[in-house]
Amino acid sequence: MATASRHVTEHIERPAQAVYEYARDPANLAHWAPGLGGSVRQEQGRWFVDVPGGGGRAEVVFTARNDLGVLDHEVRLPGGVVVHVPFRVVADGEGAEVVFTVRRAPGMTDDEFDSDAAAVAADLATLKRILEERSA
To answer: Which is an annotated Pfam family here (predicted)?
Structure first.
């Protein structure tokens, strides 16, 4: 069954490759995507985040490094639920556009869906700020 999706984008005045390299490193998640989890740690080559609200920990698995800007990842939640997250970095002139697809989970209200999309927009704005400040 198809779910509703919303594409959240942000333009970043940095080369696409620089955006890709920073965003694909799970060690940076706590800096720009605190909604995914404020604590990120690596254990035996695997990356884990603490689930907000004391819900345990989730494993984050990014797609293999690639030249296409694909940063899709899975968030493997406690209890076995796996959330696939489409995420791209697209060259845009000398800068980049990041495109994050927010999927509506089953049973999610309109307000919850709007809140998720707003949280992602805030995360992408933080990513933009961090990367653009690095070039200043």
So the answer is: Polyketide_cyc2
> What integer best gives the mean pLDDT of the chain?
91
Q: Tell me if 37 sits within 8 A of 58, measured CB to CB.
A: yes
Longest dimension (CA), the chain: 46
Residue span of the structural domain in which 32 resides: 5-134
- In whole angstroms, give the CA distance from residue 70 to residue 67: 8
The reported pLDDT for the residue numbered 2 is 58
pTM for this structure?
0.90
% of the chain beyond a pLDDT of 90? 69
CATH number at residue 65: 3.30.530.20
Count of beta carbons in the 10 Å neighbourhood of residue 47:
18
DSSP assigned state of 93: T
Q: What are the CB-based long-range contacts (under 8 Å, 24+) for 92-95? A: 92/11, 92/16, 94/13, 94/15, 95/11, 95/12, 95/13, 95/14, 95/15, 95/16
Beta-bridged to residue 8, according to DSSP, are: 100
Residues 6+ positions from 9 with CB-CB distance below 8 Å: 97, 98, 99, 100, 124
12 within 8 A of 88, measured Cβ to Cβ = no
